[in-house]
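Progress narrative, work stream C.
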Amino acid sequence: MTSWLTDKRILLIAAVTIVLVGLALLRGLHFGIEFTGGTRIPITLEKSVDSTTMSDIVENIKTRANKFGLTQVIVRSVGDRQIYVEVAENNPVFVNEIEKIIKAEGKFEAIIDGRVALQGDDIIGGSIREDPQTSGTDIRWGVSFVITPQGADKFANVSLGKGGYPVYLFLDRIEDAIIVTNSTSIYGENFTKDETDAVINPMLSMSKDTLLFTDGLSKDDIKNRILEMNKTTVVVSEKETELEAWLAERNISFVEKKDAEMKPLLGKGKEAAGLDEWAAIGLLSGPLLSDSLATGRASQQYVIEGQSQGATIDEKKEYALMEMKKIKSILSGGALPVRMSLGSTTTVPPSLGKDFLSYSIVGIVLVYIVVLLIVFVRYRNPQMIPVLVFIPTCQMACLIAILAGAGTLDLATIAGLFASMGTAVDAQVVVTDELFSKKLESNDDAQRRINKAFYIITRDAAIVIFGLFPLLFSNLVEIIGFITAMVLGTLINIIITTQTYRAVAQTMFKQQ
């Protein structure tokens, strides 16, 4: 009876199962906050959006979170109108801060030679457009936008005679802050200390920021200096976990930045060295002002552009695309293309999450055993044990590998796993009844019975799928995981059950 295990169809199913499980383990299994603990904030968009727009919105929210050092925030889309923001934290104060960041639009400023030339309110909403230009192997990136008449007059006055000067583009400029870093993060090899100081000191003075170099200072010295300076905010590297804990204990506001963001990136302007980027203070770009825009003549249409970098055409195109998206996001102040509303947050303590995971694992094992017992007790045929073990094992392994490897395994998905096992019981009962109800007369008789059984189970599966599939587009976030697991599990069950029992039937007929 077990010779069916060597059938090429069975070997293919086993191989696919092993590959899916292996890939899932290599990529890592993703569990929802129900199992890891944390807080989920559901976001609903005012209207459905396409995949490109949804991707931009997700990246925008990630940028907002990362800008404030909230690197542990996970943002993922669900359907075309829903977004989940998840964080491994259930502190109400922290969660409230995340909600503010999600809802708030950034403060955009364009500064030329120490003076504010443009602000977010000066840019007309919806006018920001990507404007790349390609000529052979030469690729230039560009972002065009339209400003108000008042903004045009202000920009003309500030930019007069400043051709070649950097236009510093800030998003949520850090003001009245202490930037805690070491000297090697500020002074590089391409510029002298004097050249660097000539650029960053006026910038720091303008925003009332102060550098605090940690070179040669003890931890206590650093803390005392921070208290003496008495600034409203402290900017620290993500590695300074002990300092962050100390700041939190004293209710001192701080902004966490990645190590790379602490370092100012300098470039050459027409008159002097200029800053290209310094995320630690909110400076995200520093394109040069063209001479044609520095005549003092007011204009409402502007283009920020630059030369793409890269060794190949593809690299230049990728650079241009990334640069335009960055500039576009800065100019829009992080504004989303559609309005959104925040739903009620769901909070799960880590200890309770571990309990949920344990209960779910026990539940899956129990369901698996019950399925085997139901079918075995019904037919009392020891020869069917390998079949009864093979089908649900492959089905559950494939389903969990896909859902936890490519998506997220949450409570709704676990419920879908349980439900999909029910379809497995139905399918095996129907096929086994047809196959073992009476002695097979011929190979054609076996095929006829199998086809009859498969007609029944595929019809039932089609009813389930067509009945549930529309709910995937209902934007009911709480049931998406259940529907996905149920539909996918039903499809996998049909494929595995069909091919397995065909192999079994052919083997049985040959052995009669």
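Work stream C, second folded protein:
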Amino acid sequence: MVNSCWLYKVKQVAKGSMENHKARFVACRFSQVEGIDYDDIFAPVARYSSIRSILALSTQMGWKIYHMDVKTTFLNGMIEEEVYIEKIEGFETFDHDSHVCQLKRALYGLKQAPHAWYTKIDSYFTRLGFTKSEVNVNLYHIVVEGKILIIFLYVDDIILIGDDQLIKSCKEDLAREFMHYFLGMKVWQGDGKLLVSQGNYANKILMRFRMESFKPMETPIASNWRKKVLLRER
């Protein structure tokens, strides 16, 4: 049987402001036993370099860019193993103290949850007629009446690139099946321009090292650094 617990988190939007408080019931993966509670756990993840290349190509080709994330992602995955988990704290039934819960779907914290989700979304895109890239298995594309739609998947984040009407139709399909902030990045698109910012991520790093009050610099190192080194060598 797999242990469980509650996790509490403050969810933020792209600007760094608080959106809401989240409480999530999760499985404690350290209590899982291989061969009993799980088998395959692998799920491919795209590289940031691939994402940047696709964004650059979309700007050059004049394609529209939209991004979205799937809510409660891992809860959409179906698990193949027979997994039992202890009862949820706060929802105990005292007349059935010896009973436990059997999972029908994946749960956050399970080792096989990423694999179950990827299998689900991959089969969904294939069913819609998308072709998966042989080089990058997180990249899908489809051509309809000469118009292209590209989908890039990164766990629960989805970026859609291509024809505006195809994107709108695909978003509606995704919303019906599963459900602006992509991988901690905020994306602005203009006429032939694309700006990608990770301001919130940068602020988190500054807070981590207590550098919020430090003055910003235009360059990553001091402008007179080379001069100082030369003086020391002499």
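The longest strand covers residues 18-27. No further action is required on this item.
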